């Protein structure tokens, strides 16, 4: 799911479907010739012919279904131009308001279609009744925002969850003493303030006078779907709705000064997130490539399979005493290559660009100003 801004209005939610196979998207999802004509540009970046409104029926399943073939579903939030929140569906590079394409009797249509968490809560009902039968809008006409622009739930984060990152922490000269140099025996859990969230393309505000050691951390983020407490590891993945990308921006000297990491992690704009949520049924969150570029230089390059504490164990550990709620966000840690790990350190400065890519999800772009 993703959040985007169209014109000057409010936030809208929807999902995208993008094919991996050379013909599955057009033949299995949109039966119109017009969307088939888009396929070369969607998959290979070739010139695109003029496209008319496709007419298609999309039926999502709890797992990848034959109708979708190889393509991955994505859910998104955007803002309409009339000042009203709305929910939308994205297929290829086109978005439709969810209220226009969900074919359910009004008596059972959920009222929370304009709220990302509401859509997640009712997704089992909504996903089987989507019909793309009206003209949509192109994604390049709108501004994508964070999937959950202002989380009502908790943004939980995990420190030192990749062994190579643990090793580089021990070499830090700019902010030594943030934590012990050995691998943790139990997950290190901290939180970020919800007002730190920004979306794709938004600026990370450089905190002049407060920090000069601003760092980036590319992370896979889990979006909780099914609430629960005391969740066993073998059941943990059933509580995940989907995955997105999160940049755990950090003020290193503030993190060290206060030891409790909340202040150093929660500065306004220090939680870029997006561009959308991919349902957990579509990808294996425990085996994805994760990379980060700063000014087009590859800095981080790892796989989520390298986590010290796997996702299921994190959910089980946290839920042992805390009830996880729908819409809670869990950032699962960062691989090696953060700015503090270089000698000399290479922290973020105004004008820098950060691009994070997670396999199967997409890319999150932000800049510092």
From TrEMBL:
InterPro entries: Fumarylacetoacetase-like_C (IPR011234), Fumarylacetoacetase_C_sf (IPR036663)
Residue stretches making up the Fumarylacetoacetase-like C-terminal domain: 154-368
Highest taxon of source: Eukaryota
Family annotation (Gene3D superfamilies): Fumarylacetoacetase-like, C-terminal domain
Annotated keywords: Metal-binding
Xref: Pfam families: FAA_hydrolase
Family as reported in the entry's similarity comment: Belongs to the FAH family.
UniProt cross-references to PANTHER family, sorted A to Z: ACYLPYRUVASE, ACYLPYRUVASE FAHD1, MITOCHONDRIAL
Protein name: Fumarylacetoacetase-like C-terminal domain-containing protein
Species annotation: Sphagnum jensenii
């Amino acid at each position: 799911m993703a959040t985007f801004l169209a014109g000057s209005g409010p936030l809208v939610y929807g999902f995208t479907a993008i094919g991996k196979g050379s013909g599955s998207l057009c033949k299995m999802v949109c039966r119109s010739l017009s969307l088939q004509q888009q396929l070369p540009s969607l998959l290979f970046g070739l010139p695109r012919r003029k496209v008319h409104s496709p007419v298609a029926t999309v039926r999502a399943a709890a797992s990848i279904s034959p109708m979708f073939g190889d393509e991955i579903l994505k859910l998104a939030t955007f803002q309409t131009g009339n000042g009203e929140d709305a929910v939308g569906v994205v297929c290829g590079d086109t978005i439709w308001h969810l209220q226009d394409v969900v074919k359910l009797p009004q008596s059972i249509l959920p009222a929370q279609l304009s709220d990302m968490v509401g859509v997640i809560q009712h997704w089992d009902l909504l996903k089987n009744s989507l019909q793309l039968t009206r003209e949509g809008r192109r994604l390049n006409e709108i501004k994508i925002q964070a999937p959950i622009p202002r989380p009502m739930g908790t943004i939980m984060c995990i420190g030192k969850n990749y062994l190579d990152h643990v090793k580089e922490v021990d070499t830090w000269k700019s902010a030594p003493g943030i934590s012990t140099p050995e691998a943790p025996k139990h997950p290190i859990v901290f939180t970020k303030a919800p007002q730190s969230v920004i979306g794709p393309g938004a600026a990370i505000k450089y905190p002049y006078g407060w920090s000069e050691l601003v760092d980036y951390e590319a992370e896979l983020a889990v979006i909780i779907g099914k609430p629960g407490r005391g969740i066993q590891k073998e059941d943990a993945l059933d509580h995940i709705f989907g995955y997105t990308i999160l940049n755990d921006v950090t003020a290193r000297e503030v993190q060290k000064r206060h030891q409790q990491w909340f202040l150093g992690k929660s500065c306004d704009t220090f939680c870029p997130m997006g561009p959308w949520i991919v349902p957990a049924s579509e990808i294996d969150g425990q085996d994805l490539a994760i990379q980060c570029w700063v000014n087009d230089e590859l800095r981080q390059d790892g796989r989520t399979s390298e986590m010290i504490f796997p996702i299921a164990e994190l959910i089980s550990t946290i839920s042992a005493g805390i009830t996880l709620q729908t819409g809670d966000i869990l950032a699962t840690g960062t691989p090696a290559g953060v700015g503090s790990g270089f000698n000399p350190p290479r922290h973020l400065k105004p004008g820098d660009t950060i691009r994070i890519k997670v396999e199967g999800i997409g890319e999150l772009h932000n800049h510092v100003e």
